[in-house]
Amino acid sequence: MFRLLCLLTVLGCGCPLDSGMLFPRETSSREVKELNGLWKFRADMSPNRNQGFERAWYKARLEESGPVVDMPVPASYNDITQDSSLRDFIGWVWYEREVLVPARWVAGDGTRLVLRVGSAHYRSVVWVNGVKVTEHEGGHLPFEAEIGSVVRGDPTACRITIAVNNTLTLETLPPGMIHVPGSGFFVQNINFDFFNYAGLHRSVLLYTTPGAYIDDVTVVTDFLDSTGFVKYKVWVQGASTFSMKVDLVDKDGRSVATSSEQAGVLKVADVKLWWPYLMHESPGYLYSLEVRLLAASEDVYTLPVGIRTVNVSSSQFLINNRPFYFHGVNKHEDYDVRGKGFDWPLVVKDFNLLKWLGANSFRTSHYPYAEEILQMCDRHGIVVIDECPGVGIKDIRSFGNASLKHHLFVMDELVRRDKNHPSVVMWSVANEPASEMPPAGLYFKTLIEHTKALDPTRPVTYVTSSNYGRDKGAPYVDVVCVNSYFSWYHDSGHLDVIGIQLNTQFDNWYSLYRKPIIQSEYGADAVAGLHSDPPMMFTEEYQKEVLRSYHSAFDQKRKQYVVGELIWNFADFMTAQGSCVTRVVGNKKGVFTRQRQPKAAAFLLKERYWALANETGRLPPWTKYPCSQ
């Protein structure tokens, strides 16, 4: 009983936002219309970048304001045209799309009509038929607005205008600064090593719900012996009196537990747990939580549910009470032409490559990825460290109250969106901040405690590259995540220092904090096809030897307190020109090229990861990878 009371208390915690952000799904009561495709597009090239607002471009068709071009959505706009000024453009750009709304959606029967933007980088303002409906700050999380009242006045015409500004300041996430070397010329200075792609990066949708609707659902899972527990709570909007039916259904369509309460605990006999890829013969098992709201009308929403637990000891990371070792990658949402635009063929290809590698995990470096990617992780059993866009926090002014307030709000949005994904096992609140600065201690203490209050069921970390004794935020994390590039940025070309420095790093961090450690980044650039023997920097051979040296050190510590290794990076990715003279058309630390072709290091990593899976997993004999292949 005490166990259940504690978990019910967890359901009382939650995001202080005033509404939910359930992923739009078609059900018997809900419809979804994608607005992907070609939009009209115009960049505001005026000297102050503000002409669009001064002349109210949103009040009429965008083409009446001046020349427009076709722009695909979802996609970054930077690499679509042959115009270098657009690739490096800083300021407001304008998108427009005219759509037909089905008459039944605006028939006046109480149906809600919602416009949802999956991601707009960075700041955005949205109008429908010239009426402002919402605005949002932050480039990687969804936002939405109910637009039924605007559209019902003229149901045959729905003109959607979205203005997007990619300018970063010291108080944004990620932060940046604008340099103005001349009138009408802007340079964005950043402290992160990836291209600041911009635009409508994920789907824009219209969806409907009844007037009385399921606004949010939270689930927390546990198990004891062969019995699973799904603690749930449903939030309802638009009705003060209603009834409810909650049904948990297995993969075969059989109901395994039901309830008629708005919140409660569902008990599942002979539970099938959610297991990571290569840790069990049936990874990624998902139930379906079918929620049915009965008010003036009926609303139905279905949420995939994986039953699993996550715990951390002083030396282990446990999933379902078994030690879990992260052997995975860091990634970027990055590809030719489309930039950060969501692309299903690329997503499926990447998951096939992850499984080919034998990778069981990745970190969403350095921002939240698309919801569809997390859904794939849920289904395939790929474990996720879910990271917010807190990258490049290097200026002491970015530790001020305004920055902290925005950072806390971003974590609210992130936890609200991703709290129900079983694949998400840990929150990361930042990557490589200047955590040795005096304000960093209180900043990260506040941020981590806030995140734990939002979700007490998952550990919280941030990724550090600071010296172990000077890191002000490390005392507050649950897992120490460390980035280091020995023989690359430090002692360049000297492979023999890796083992000594890495073992010293591990021993120092663990002796000070007594917490499990993940090597969250390591690696070396390699230009595909560049070879040298003996190995030299930037060759495929040198990249392999760096990885091999790191792996030897990992093997000495992973049976003690090192609980994971995440290569930097899965694939090559684009960076800004001039950001670093060591970047040759992007960062080349990928074990795959940007076009997803393997370098020599990919085969080395594949052999290691499958060997680790054979050693630490619970696999039937026929799935074991023969390392000699």
UniProtKB/TrEMBL annotation:
It is found in: Lysosome. Residues 310-613 form the Glycoside hydrolase family 2 catalytic domain. It catalyses: a beta-D-glucuronoside + H2O = D-glucuronate + an alcohol. The keyword Transmembrane does not apply. GO terms for cellular component: extracellular space; lysosome. One of its GO terms (biological process) is glucuronoside catabolic process. Pfam families: Glyco_hydro_2 (PF00703), Glyco_hydro_2_C (PF02836), Glyco_hydro_2_N (PF02837). GO terms for molecular function: beta-glucuronidase activity; carbohydrate binding. Its EC number is 3.2.1.31. Residues 212-308 form the Glycoside hydrolase family 2 immunoglobulin-like beta-sandwich domain. Homotetramer. This is Beta-glucuronidase.
